[in-house]
């Protein structure tokens, strides 16, 4: 027997990754196909009529939005569905009985979510490339926002998965919070094309900053400065991490 | 003095208006085979859950091998293996994968030798590669036992491990658990099969409505609570009543016996009364009778 301090955390992370990887067809393949359909339909309808930032073709503009949207949704789906399934089937006890700390627990679920998000995001990007001429101006920003977006949605997924007692509650969380915030964040449009009032409203949506900063990485242009976006996204992540850790430390709903 | 395997002091837990644990004090010494008995809803699972950190108690302290389960949870949990009452499993994995993962959670890598040994002892070797969904209920329960043992915990708590396990495998399971006990593991067992508890457990606590209502060695409990009874078939059963017996069917009469020493005088009285004994048998005290008496009295 070999004991070491990190093994527990690594095993939980490995298990969480294996969980989605084993059914990769559904957890990675399906969302990639979905995004591809969006891309084909929207670009067919709009490409010749719309340009963004002056000269960027609409399809090219759309792809980073789709990539990020898929990344975010799947990061959320990973931790939230894993937790609620474990809670409902009762096998959550297998991770509650071992000597894992709540920080290890948090880190494992969030990192697995980030990985699933990144896999899906890369998948969407790869299948889009044949259809668009996409510049990559600043890959560092792409990666930074992908990572932060995944971590934020992974944390939200942990919160939702712990809070929800039933699948419908989780679906509610997804349909009434995650989806609207994503859809209204500028995935499908530049907020500069919006009336003044709606531009201001968009600025209180943290998802807008994730997508805007992500898009900057491709085009070197965005609606707001990527540094501002990074700051907003960073603060959001810290806030959610603290909240989730506090829930876990108290054993909220997990150790009733 | 060595530390107790389990020490629970003033444990309380309330679910809404229901007092699931109403101040439980319990100490189990290392190496004991301990029974935790009680009717449905007595609080056995709640007590075990609080001990293993699955439930936050309202009050009281819980220690495993001297480690507080809250402030020193890592050490406490390393020393404890729990077989849960509910038949839970992760449908994503095979038996072996599950046991490897469970080992990993406890910080153990390369645990295959021990895993093989557990699988063999629980007659699961043939199912090592099978997905959990493919197993029968009894097999799933044995996997739960295996999962509780991956980290060789000195203290093992089994919450109704034999529910739904067939007779042969039940015997096998007990043999295995007895062996673990002989090897020095402390065993705490809850079961509704009282004969099992009687033969296996050296000491027993009985719980009712969140309170310990009896706590003693199995031997003492059997002696203290249930009297033996002498059953005799008599030529003239009606004579039994005058001698303190109760007439039952078929010419039989029962005479309560508090101690074996009372047997001789009883036989003497029967002889003096001129009552001829046709047949005779001793009714042994059993745990079921003790249980019923304790529960009614408490
Ligand atoms: N999560 C919960 N919420 C509310 N009440 C609960 C909860 N868990 C247990 N109880 C209640 O606490 C009491 C003790 O339950 P517990 O499961 O500890 O009993 P038990 O002795 O294990 O019974 P059994 O022999 O049926 O397994 C019961 O009345 C039960 O209904
Ligand atoms: Mg129970």
Describe the main β-sheet of chain B briefly: 6 strands, mixed
Which residues of chain A form runs of ≥5 with pLDDT under 50? none
Helix and strand composition category of chain B: alpha/beta
CATH topology title of the largest domain in chain B: Rossmann fold
Order of helices and strands of chain B: EEEHEEHEHEHHEHEHEEHEEEHEH
Strand tally of chain B: 15
Estimate what percentage of residues of chain A fall within beta strands: under 5%
Give the bound compounds.
adenosine-5'-triphosphate, magnesium ion
Name the CATH class of the largest domain in chain B: Alpha Beta
How many helical elements of chain B?
A: 10
Measured between the Cα atoms of the first and last residue of chain B, the distance is 33 Å
What is the radius of gyration of chain A computed over CA atoms, rounded to a whole number of angstroms? 19 Å
Radius of gyration of chain B: 23 Å
- Low-pLDDT ranges of chain B: none
- In which order are the strands of the major sheet of chain A placed? 2-3
Layout of strands and helices, then pairs:
The complex is a heterodimer of chains A (256) and B (298).
Chain A: E1 2-3, H1 7-21, H2 24-46, E2 51-52, E3 56-57, H3 58-89, H4 93-96, H5 102-128, H6 139-163, H7 167-183, H8 196-202, H9 206-219, H10 226-250
Antiparallel strand pairs in A: 2-3
Chain B: E1 6-15, E2 18-28, E3 33-37, H1 44-51, E4 59-64, E5 67-68, H2 73-78, E6 80-83, H3 95-105, E7 108-109, H4 112-121, H5 137-149, E8 155-159, H6 167-182, E9 186-190, H7 194-200, E10 203-208, E11 211-217, H8 218-225, E12 228-234, E13 246-247, E14 252-257, H9 263-272, E15 277-283, H10 287-297
Magnesium ion is lined by residues 44-45, 85, 159 of chain B.
């Amino acid at each position: 027997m070999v004991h070491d301090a990190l093994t527990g955390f690594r095993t939980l992370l490995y298990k969480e990754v294996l969980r989605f990887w084993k059914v990769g067809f559904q957890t990675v393949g399906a969302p990639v196909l979905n995004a591809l359909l969006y891309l084909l339909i929207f670009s067919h309808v709009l490409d010749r009529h719309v340009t963004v930032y002056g000269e960027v073709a609409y399809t090219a503009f759309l792809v980073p939005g789709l990539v990020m949207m898929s990344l975010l949704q799947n990061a959320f789906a990973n931790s939230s569905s894993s937790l609620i399934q474990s809670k409902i089937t009762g096998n959550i006890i297998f991770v509650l009985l071992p000597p894992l700390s709540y920080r290890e627990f948090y880190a494992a679920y969030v990192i697995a979510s980030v990985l699933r998000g990144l896999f899906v995001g890369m998948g969407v990007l790869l299948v889009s490339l044949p259809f668009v001429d996409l510049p990559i101006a600043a890959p560092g920003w792409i990666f930074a926002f992908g990572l932060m977006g995944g971590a934020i949605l992974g944390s939200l997924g942990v919160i939702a998965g712990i809070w929800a007692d039933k699948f419908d509650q989780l679906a509610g969380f997804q349909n009434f919070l995650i989806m609207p915030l994503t859809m209204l964040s500028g995935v499908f449009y530049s907020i500069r094309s919006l009336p003044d009032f709606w531009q201001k409203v968009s600025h209180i949506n943290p998802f807008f900053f994730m997508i805007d900063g992500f898009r900057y990485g491709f085009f070197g242009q965005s609606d707001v400065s990527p540094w501002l976006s990074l700051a907003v996204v960073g603060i959001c992540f810290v806030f959610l991490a603290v909240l989730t850790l506090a829930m876990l430390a108290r054993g909220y709903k997990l150790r009733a | 003095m060595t530390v107790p395997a389990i020490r629970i002091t003033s444990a309380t837990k309330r679910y809404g208006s229901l007092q699931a644990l109403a101040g439980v004090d319990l100490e189990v010494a290392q190496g004991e085979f301990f029974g935790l008995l009680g009717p449905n809803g007595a609080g056995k699972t709640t007590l075990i859950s609080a001990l293993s950190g699955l439930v936050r108690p309202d009050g009281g302290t819980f220690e495993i091998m001297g480690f507080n389960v809250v402030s020193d949870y890592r050490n406490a949990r390393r020393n404890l293996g729990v077989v849960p009452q509910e038949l839970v499993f992760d449908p994503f994995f095979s038996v072996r994968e599950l046991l490897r993962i469970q080992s990993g959670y406890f910080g153990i890598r390369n645990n295959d030798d021990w895993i093989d040994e557990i699988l063999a002892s629980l007659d699961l070797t043939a199912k090592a590669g099978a997905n959990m969904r493919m197993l029968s209920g009894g097999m799933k329960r044995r996997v739960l036992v295996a999962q509780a043992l991956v980290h060789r915990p000195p203290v093992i708590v089994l919450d109704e491990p034999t529910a739904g396990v067939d007779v042969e495998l039940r015997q096998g399971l007990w043999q295995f658990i007895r062996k673990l006990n002989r090897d020095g593991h402390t065993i705490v067992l809850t079961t509704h099969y009282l004969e099992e508890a009687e033969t296996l457990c050296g000491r027993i606590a009985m719980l009712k409505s969140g309170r310990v209502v009896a706590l003693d060695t199995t031997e003492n409990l059997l002696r203290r609570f249930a009297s033996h009874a002498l059953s005799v078939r008599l030529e003239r059963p009606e004579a039994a009543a005058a001698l303190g017996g109760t007439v039952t069917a078929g010419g039989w009469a029962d005479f309560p016996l508090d101690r074996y020493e009372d047997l001789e005088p009883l036989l003497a009285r029967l002889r003096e009364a001129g009552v001829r004994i046709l047949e005779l048998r001793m009714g042994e005290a059993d745990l079921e009778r003790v249980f019923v008496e304790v529960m009614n009295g408490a």
